[in-house]
Amino acid sequence: MARRHPEPLLWMLFSAGGVVSGMLMPILVLLFGLAFPLGWLTPPTYDTLRAVLGNPIAALVVFSLCALSLFHWAHRFRHTLYDGLQIKHLNEVIAVVSYGVAVAGSGLAAYLLWQLA
Amino acid sequence: MEQTTDVYTPYHPRWLRPRVSTYWWLQKPAYLRFILREGSCMFVGWFTVYLLLLLDAVLEGPLAYEVFLAWSGTPWVLALNVVTLAFVVFHAITFFQAAPQAIVVRLGRTRVPPRAVLLGHYAGWVAVSAIVWFVLLGV
Questions:
Q1: Nearest CA of chain A to the CA of B110: how many Å?
Q2: Block means of pLDDT (10 residues each) for chain A, length 117 residues?
Q3: H helices present in chain A, as ranges
C-alpha cells in the first residue's frame, strides 16, 4: 500500500488556521487584550460570556479557532526553524513537539468547551 | 556568505554550495518581512493560550473571571497584547493577500477575478468582526 504523506493535510490545517485566526483574532485581541483591560469598553458580564460559550455554534467557532490556530502555529513554527534558523537535524523532534502541542491544546479546548456546554 | 567548512557534522549532507548565514533574513527588507510574517505565528499561538486561559477562568466561575480580567490589565500582559495586535493584523493582511494565489474560484467557465477573491476575504473579515462585537457587547 502506498504510504500517504501527511504534508497536504498539515498544509490544509495551516491554511484553514490562517484564515480563521486572521478573521477572528484582530477583533478578539482588540477587545480582550486592550479595550477591556484599559477600560475603553465594559467587558461582558460573567453570565453573558457563560451564555455565549454555552451556545453550540459559538462553542464550535471557538473550538475551531483554538484548534486550527494551534495547527497554523505548529506548521509555521516548524518551517521557520527549518528555513529561517536552519535547524535541520532536529526537524523530526521539532515536528513531533509542535504538532503534539497542537493536538494537546485542541484536546484542552474541546474539554473546556464541553464542560461549559 | 560564509565559506564552506570541512567540519564534520552528523545528519548533515556535505554542502556543495556556500553555506547561507543563519541570519540571512537580516540582509534585505523583503527577507525581514518574510521572517516577520512567519514569526506572526508565535503571536497567534500566544493568543490561543490566552483564550484557553479565559475559557478556563469562565469554567471556574465569576471570581476566576474577575481575576483573569485583572491579570489582563497588568503591564506586561498589556504590552504583549499591543504587540500581538500588530502582528495578528499583519498576519491577517498578508494571509488574505496570498489567498487569491491559492484559491481559484470558477463560476461556470469563467474564473472569478483574483481581486474579487481578495475583496471577499476583506468583506468576511469586516462581517466576522462585527458579529463578534455584537455577540459580546450587544450593540
A1: 25
A2: 80 95 98 97 96 96 98 95 81 92 98 95
A3: 7-28, 46-54, 56-83, 91-116
